[in-house]
Amino acid sequence: MSGLPEREVWQSIRPITGQHLARPSPLKDLVSADLIRWARRVHKIAYMPFGFLESLQVRGYEYLPLREDPSPILAVAHKKLHDVFLLEEYLAGRPLERFHDLTLVAQAGLFSGVYAYRDIMPAFLKKGLLRRPTIALSHQIGKILKDLTETVHANPVYREGSDIPYDEATFEAELGGAAILGLEYQQYVKFAARTTLESVARVQKLMQERNYLFLILPEGKYCHDGSIATLQDLTSFMAFRRKRLTIPVAIAYDELCPDRTGRLAAFACTHPALSPPQSRDDLPAFSQKLQHILQQQTPVLSSHLLAIACLQQPEPFSLSQLRDRFLQHARTISNSDLVQDPGLCRTDYLEERWTRFLKRKFYNWYKKTPQGHVLLPHRMARFSRSERTDHDLAWNANNIRHAWRLLGFQDN
Asked: CB of 56 within 8 A of CB of 89?
């Protein structure tokens, strides 16, 4: 398993972050007081009832360099909004002797009211008499998000086609135009290009002069099919320029098996470091290797196996048929060397996940008929299109493309 520790080494991170963020905080000499204050807030929100995380299991912290060593690049697979809370927990829970302060690049919308206007506010609020109060509220949310992102030494990057629209109409409709950004379209395009270059330079300076860890989500997006997308060039470029190790962290959520308040069990697998590229010619190969590792080390969870079982099962089917296929897949994975939820080898755990799936998800998507259960396509079509481009079963199955062969699953 490429030198990874045994599956029993998974550790629950919540008690550790609780200890590190207690008052007085052991982190007070390592990071700013503002960052600790924000981490406490996010930590509380993460586990609130009807919140985001039920638990976080981590493995591989020992692959992070010691604090006196050069800081690494931390490349984390990108999944969903929950990543904000998972990353706060993962970073706050690091062993103190391996704790570097951090910097990152973040989507430019987080530094203004754009993210709130584009990704939070419903479309009907952006029209007519409601548009003005919606813009005002977006500005207020933007101030909070900007404070948070700047506290973690984040720097804005403007992505072409998203943060930099291709035309003025999109600039007005999606980003709120000058009312949100204070600039006309052509002025904004020039400003965005200049600011992105400045951000990349600033991150390199912080890595070099202050030994900050560089946290990056190398896909640059989470709006795809659930597998690890083609990586953007910035990770390999920074590794080459700064000659820093890159540490891949593959994450996964037990999305189809939430607890009764909707919270998810999360997993983060840290992989041994990759050496930096030696020349510019090595950058594409480096990106491909990093993408491969992030896919291959994605932990296999019950949700992934349930999704594949559903997609494989000919309709109509009985629950007993679906359950048997799920348990069979769990046995196959637990007998393999794939990174996985250690609970997959326990019958009681699998039964509990099966029950959760039926109560929280299955009956939203399937209808019982005299012949058996059949899919309701219009129900399955309801998914978060800001996070993914496939429905929830396909998205979860695609998380573990590397396990398809073992499970006899074919992509249709």
From this structure: yes
Determine the Cα–Cα distance for residues 366 and 239; give it in Å rounded to an integer. 47
Say what percent of the chain tops pLDDT 90: 89
pLDDT at residue 412, as a whole number: 58
**404: burial class by Cβ within 10 Å (0-12, 13-18, 19+)?**
middle
Helices (H), 14-130: 14-20, 33-46, 83-92, 114-115
* Closest among 203, 202, 199, 198 to 213, alpha carbons compared: 203
- Look at residue 254 in the predicted model and tell me its pLDDT: 98
CA angle 369, 302, 2 (to 5 degrees): 150
E-strand spans in 293-396? 366-369, 372-375
| Inter-residue contact 295 to 401 (CB < 8 Å) | yes
Q: How far apart are CA 270 and CA 5, in angstroms?
A: 10
Token digits for 372? 């058996």
CB 104 within 8 A of CB 154: yes
Alpha-carbon gap, residue 231 to 76, rounded angstroms: 11
- 156 touches 193 (CB < 8 A): no
Q: What percentage of the chain carries pLDDT values higher than 70?
A: 98
pLDDT of residue 2: 40
Strands 372-375 and 366-369: antiparallel
pLDDT of 3 above 90:
no
Whether the bond into 95 is cis, omega within 30 of 0: no
> What's the confidence (pLDDT) of residue 6?
47
Which amino acid is located at 114 in the chain?
V
**Which two tokens mark 367?**
């209808």
What's the rounded Cα separation, in Å, for the pair 102 and 92?
A: 11
Average pLDDT over residues 99-108: 94
- 384 contacts 356 by C-beta, under 8 angstroms: no
> How far apart are alpha carbons 20 and 10 in whole angstroms?
19
pLDDT at position 8 is: 52
